[in-house]
Design a protein that fits this description.
The chain is α/β, with parallel strands linked by helices and 280 residues long. The protein folds into two domains: 197 residues, Vaccinia Virus protein VP39 (Rossmann fold); 74 residues, Helicase, Ruva Protein, domain 3, CATH 1.10.8. It contains 14 helices and nine strands. The strands form two sheets. A seven-stranded mixed sheet has the order 4-3-2-5-6-9-7, sandwiched between helices. Helix 9 crosses helix 10. The longest helix is centred in the last third of the chain and has 17 residues.
Length: 280
C-alpha cells in the first residue's frame, strides 16, 4: 500500500490528525522515503534509529531492509498506532520517549529520520556526539543551506562551523512541500551526515571549541580581536587571558571578521584560548 493510501487508512481507523504543536508533517512521497533508506545504505547488518517516526511511513521501509529499527516517538497517540499496525515486526523496537532525553542507543550505527524541525539543531549534535557511521535526515531547506554555507555568506555561522568540524555534510536533494501531509510552510532537503573519524576531529577540548565558536559568532561582523574581547564571558577568559590570546594570534587573523573564518581557523583560535588559559 502506497504511503498516501496508508496514511488515509490510519486517519479513517484512528481519527489520526497531525499535531502541529509537535511539528508533525508526514512524508508520503514513496520515492523520497525509498531514497532516504538507500542513501543511508541500510542493510541487514544495521541497527537504525528513527527519530519521530510518526505513523510509521518511513518505518515501513526501514524494517524491510534493516536488521533492527529503534523508533523513538514522543506522541503517545502515534506510539499506540505504531504498536497496533507495525508492532508484530520482530526487528522493530518502538520507544515512547523524548529523543533529546533518550539519546542514541549504543548499538545504533545509522540514523534515518524526518526530523521534527524544532529539534533540528539539538538532534543533529546529539547524533554527531554518538558513534553512528551515517545519518540521512530531512531538514528545513534553510537549515540545510546553513550547514553547507561558505565563509562570508549570509548563512555561514556557528552551526556551519561546528557541524563541518564533526562531520562530512552533503545535501542530497530538495524536498517539495507537497511531499508532506499537511504541507509545511517551508521547503525541505535531505542531508547525509558522516561523522568524521577520531583522527580528523579538532585537537581541542570540545567545550572550549563550542564556547569560542559561540562567542565569535555572537559578534560575527566585528573583528576577531573585538569579538574575543566582547565574548570573553562565554569562553571563560579574564582580562589577562584575553590579552594573552590576542598576543598569541597573528594580526591577519585578529583583523578578520568571524563570518570569514574557516572552520580550521576557528579551531586555531580555540586552541590558542585553551593554551592561554592553561598558562595563566
Amino acid at each position: 500500500m502506497r504511503s498516501a493510501e496508508y496514511l488515509a487508512y490510519l486517519r479513517r481507523r484512528y481519527g489520526l490528525r497531525p499535531n502541529r504543536r509537535l511539528g508533525q508533517h508526514f512524508m508520503v512521497d514513496d520515492r523520497l522515503l525509498r531514497f532516504m533508506v538507500e542513501a543511508a545504505g541500510v542493510g541487514p547488518e544495521d541497527t537504525v534509529l528513527e527519530i519521530g517516526p510518526g505513523p510509521g511511513l518511513l518505518t515501513r521501509y526501514l524494517i524491510e531492509r534493516a536488521g533492527r529499527v529503534v523508533a523513538v516517538e514522543l506522541d503517545e497517540r502515534l506510539v499506540e498506532v505504531l504498536e497496533r499496525e507495525l508492532g508484530d515486526a520482530e526487528n522493530l523496537e518502538i520507544v515512547h520517549a523524548d529523543f533529546l532525553e533518550y539519546g542514541v542507543p549504543e548499538e545504533v550505527n545509522k540514523v534515518v529520520s524526518n526530523l521534527p524541525y524544532q529539534i533540528s539543531s539539538e538532534a543533529t549534535f546529539e547524533i554527531l556526539r554518538s558513534d553512528v557511521e551515517r545519518a540521512v535526515l530531512t531538514y528545513q531547506r534553510e537549515f540545510a543551506e546553513r550547514m553547507t554555507a561558505e565563509p562570508g555568506t549570509r548563512g555561514y555561522g556557528r552551526l556551519t562551523v561546528m557541524v563541518n568540524l564533526l562531520a562530512r555534510v552533503e545535501v542530497l536533494r530538495a524536498v517539495p512541500r507537497r511531499a508532506f501531509v499537511p504541507p509545511p510552510r517551508v521547503s525541505s532537503a535531505i542531508v547525509r551526515l558522516e561523522p568524521r573519524p577520531e583522527s580528523e576531529l579538532p585537537d581541542v577540548d570540545p567545550e572550549t571549541l563550542e564556547a569560542v565558536c559561540r562567542g565569535l559568532f555572537q559578534h560575527r561582523r566585528k573583528t576577531v580581536r573585538n569579538a574575543l574581547r566582547l565574548s570573553a564571558h562565554e569562553w571563560g577568559g579574564d582580562e589577562e587571558v584575553v590579552e594573552e590570546v590576542l598576543r598569541r594570534l597573528p594580526e591577519e587573523l585578529l583583523d578578520k571578521r568571524p563570518l570569514h573564518l574557516t572552520p580550521e581557523e576557528v579551531v586555531r583560535v580555540a586552541r590558542c584560548v585553551e593554551r592561554a588559559r592553561g598558562s595563566s
